[in-house]
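User: Fold both of these, please.

Assistant: Here is the first one.
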Amino acid sequence: MIDPQIENARKVMSALTASHIDVQFDASTLANPAKLIRVKVLHYWLDLLTPEGGIDFAELRGRAVFATMNEMLVPVVGRDDLIALKEVAASKPDCDAKHKQDLKRLRLRG
């Protein structure tokens, strides 16, 4: 989950570039609410999300969990928040099937 402020978006872009991740978008894309950008990195997908309008990023950040990426601890959205975000995405008419699949998997893992 990315805080959709232009200053933060620029930092994210710098981190991705420094990690040799090929990005096909610019910082202004991440500086908007309700974005999902999928980036292919080696054998996995990295989903960059910005919260819907009305969702407080600071609250999400406060409930984040940490994962290790390239030997660094990185805060990632917590499971309950991820389910809530996926539910919002899945309810939209133009929903990507991936959101519905992700939501189903998250609920199965209870």
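And the second sequence with its predicted structure:
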Amino acid sequence: MTRKDYELIAGSIALINKQYSNEIENPDNTAEERAFFIGARRGIQLATNSIASKLSIDNSRFDGKRFLEACGVEKDPMFLIFSATTN
């Protein structure tokens, strides 16, 4: 994969993550709706960490921390993610 591919994926994830964050903060949503979006956002975070972990293992030049930042997702401690500068 190329940097352009990584940027496309990160941009898509960031957009969805931001939309779900906005829904969580939306005062018009019910508690049940906010709970749904909290769970959905958590799923996105876990999936994104898993993707970053696999990509960092597959490509020694891939910077997992930078990818997560571009996605707007925090690193989850249960995933091993390498930075291109630490490989």
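The two ends are 18 Å apart (CA to CA).
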